[in-house]
Amino acid sequence: MSTNGTVSAVSSNGEYTFTKPNRDSVTLLAGLGVQGDVHAGVTVKHRSRIAQDPTQPNLRQVHLIHEELFAEVAAAGFTVAPGQLGENITTRGIDLLGLPVGALLRIGDDAVVEVTGLRNPCVQIDAFQDGLLKQVVGRDEDGGIVRKAGIMGIVREGGLVRPGDAIEVELPEGPHRPLDRV
């Protein structure tokens, strides 16, 4: 996969549900997230995070998943389509999981998302399809946890995002910090 790719789908939901319906477009709002999405905001919006500390900054304003993951889980017998794992932007052609913290994703004409970390998948994935959690969270050769359910980011510059939009990756200066869960 290259450092550039495309948007294959966009999704949002104004209510707390696991899946998010696909849209013709979404509008990213600087410092907030996806307009009208339940997870948009300056402070944390994920229920588990609110319970811990509702004043934490929202490092999970936008959830992105690589479409290639759907083919990977399909090989294990699972059928997953864009938006069904709760992501806002489904990508094609980018190794999202290999990006460093601070990478910028320039999406479409105006939007810029700064990568903050990995999505930490929860048991809700098994409620969606039993056994799917084991497909998106595994272990490497050294026993370390490998999270494959996408990445999270914050909106640096707002703009309209549509399926088919180009995504250009801009890597940060200096030594790269690998992604960890946020």
TrEMBL record:
UniProt cross-references to Pfam families, sorted A to Z:
MOSC
Q: What PANTHER family does the entry give?
A: METAL-SULFUR CLUSTER BIOSYNTHESIS PROTEINS YUAD-RELATED, MOSC DOMAIN-CONTAINING PROTEIN
MOSC domain mapped to chain residues: 20-170
Any signal peptide, and if so, which residues?
none
Under what name is this protein listed? MOSC domain-containing protein
Entry-linked InterPro entries: MoCF_Sase_C, MOSC_domain, Pyrv_Knase-like_insert_dom_sf
Q: What is the lineage of its organism?
A: Bacteria, Bacillati, Actinomycetota, Actinomycetes, Kitasatosporales
